[in-house]
Amino acid sequence: MSIVVRDVREHELDSVLALNNAAGPTILPLDAARLRHLYENAEYFRVAERDGSLAGFLIGFGSHANHDSSNFRWFRERYPEFFYIDRIVVASRRRGGGVGRAFYADAQSYAELRYPEMACEVFLDGASDPVLLFHGSFGFREVGQHVMEEAGVRAAMLMKPLCSYRWVRDTYGDALPLEPWITQPRGPIAARRLTGTCP
């Protein structure tokens, strides 16, 4: 039973919203308007399918995005270039089955050609140890803590260096090869940029 990671489709936003709001205290709740805003502005917005059903989603932004998250701003005040994972949600029945790792591998394959680091946060509460362990095993390290002004939640701020980025920049500059695995959009904004319809 394989995991397929692909771009979200607009008609799936209701299902994404339900997944997000069923995720529990490790993810901030969303309403439909906020999810629509993320859909229209995220650089990376992908879902995972397993056995034909939605198993989760991941939303990401580049460091130059106009994103209003206080955690994103915390990173931008300290780091010039990074790819920020705004949220990752895996359906409860799919946790521990490799969906999270599939998302992070896909997001890293996108980010390491474009950014020197990946950033994310983990809410610090009594149940955060497994999530911190997961991120630590994937190469993330804590670089500080931040209390989110919009939610009053303390988060561990995590960064991961992307070792391939420097070699890619030194070798190709901004002229990446036109290979499908490189040029394939990873969300609505990326798709519009490739087709020339992004404002």
TrEMBL record:
Q: Which residues form the N-acetyltransferase domain?
A: 3-164
GO molecular function term, any single one: acyltransferase activity, transferring groups other than amino-acyl groups
InterPro entries per record: Acyl_CoA_acyltransferase (IPR016181), GNAT_dom (IPR000182), UCP028520 (IPR016890)
Q: Which Pfam families match?
A: Acetyltransf_1 (PF00583)
Descriptive protein name = N-acetyltransferase domain-containing protein
Organism expressing this protein natively:
Aerolutibacter ruishenii
